[in-house]
């Protein structure tokens, strides 16, 4: 019997009526002949509430305890969903991450899945039950509860779909699919019917909060068909799938803006072998994830080095570079927090020219200054002033006609 995994995000299970609606969707798929596994998030803004409850008592809560606390949000939803299904006359059973052996590493608040025990789920599915699994959580090898990072229920769902060999992973949310950019930032954004894993990986890691980046990584690796769709409407959403040749015809598939980041620069570092290694070893020791590293030689003796980090890592990163400053003979360290990154992404960039020109011209016309630029094969990113982020995104979206479905854009977009 084919299996389907249905994931419901926080807004899609926010109250009793929404939980019932999600339960109805699961029953409908059972009636269509599927075995159904539901993955649920904490209701509404509950995870945010739990975070602020913790911070009220301790500004720097132990991460293990944070995971104990945050995992309770999802646990409530899954049992409520099982009760709703029972009331509707359908057998259901809920599980926490630990109960299905969702084994992770021990990096509390940002753990990675190592393995999943599918047997317990199969056993219950074979008894005709709908199985409901708490998203976002697992256990490490010492039975400590872990969580997968904010938005991590998507990753639970796709990883389960892979482990169970599911036909599809449906991700139900508060938008009816993936748009060319966040519709909250640019209201005219157009819906995308199909997008490649690689493009979605780039968009998600550049700030498109509609899906957890690691969920897309699992989808790509294990070939899981992912369908992002609305929990309140019956429409078809967006399919994330392998690249097909037609996708190359679209130059820019989407745009993102990322605001919660900071830039650190080390000015006048001695230009000798080993200094970059020393600096990044310090940052790695401090468990800081670094992006967009730029090093430029300013003279035979000196080099400047800068990199981007998540704003939440700023204190740890600053501390790390301060410890190495004298060792690498750095003249000055600068930090910028008032920045945002605007990016455009598309597999079509590989085969079309003029994309960079169009992006930079759009920003120039909008009088947005570009602080720095980074590129990959399928993306271009510009750092701009945070207070110009919205107008920069709008200018770029209009230049690439991201307010129109791809087939209606002029060829050069
Ligand atoms: P859930 O709670 O269901 O996981 P999220 O809030 O995590 O939902 O994700 C849905 C939100 O993602 C949307 O409300 C939308 O504002 C935002 N979003 C960001 N980028 C995009 C995009 N490119 N397309 C669609 N939605 C996006
Ligand atoms: N409840 C968690 C969060 O709000 C996980 C999720 O919703 O995916 O981040
Ligand atoms: Mg989410």
Describe this structure in words.
- The protein is an alpha/beta fold and 413 residues long.
- It folds into 3 domains: 3-174, Acetylglutamate kinase-like (Carbamate kinase, 3-Layer(aba) Sandwich), CATH 3.40.1160.10; 264-331, ACT domain (Alpha-Beta Plaits); 339-408, VC0802-like (2-Layer Sandwich).
- The chain is 33% helix and 26% strand.
- The protein is built from 11 helices and 20 strands.
- It has helices at residues 16-31, 46-57, 63-87, 119-126, 153-164, 197-205, 213-222, 275-285, 314-324, 355-365, 389-399, and strands at 3-8, 35-40, 92-95, 102-104, 113-116, 130-134, 137-139, 145-147, 168-173, 194-196, 226-230, 238-241, 254-258, 261-270, 290-297, 302-310, 332-336, 339-345, 372-376, 379-385.
- The strands form 5 sheets. The chain has an 8-stranded mixed beta sheet with strand order 3-6-2-1-9-11-12-10, with helices on both faces. Strands 13-18-20-19 form a 4-stranded antiparallel beta sheet. Strands 15-16-14-17 form a 4-stranded antiparallel beta sheet, with helices on one face.
- A hairpin with a 4-residue loop joins β15 (290-297) and β16 (302-310).
- The mean pLDDT is 95.
- Residues 9-12, 41, 151, 173-175, 178-179, 181-184, 208-210, 254 line the site of adenosine-5'-diphosphate.
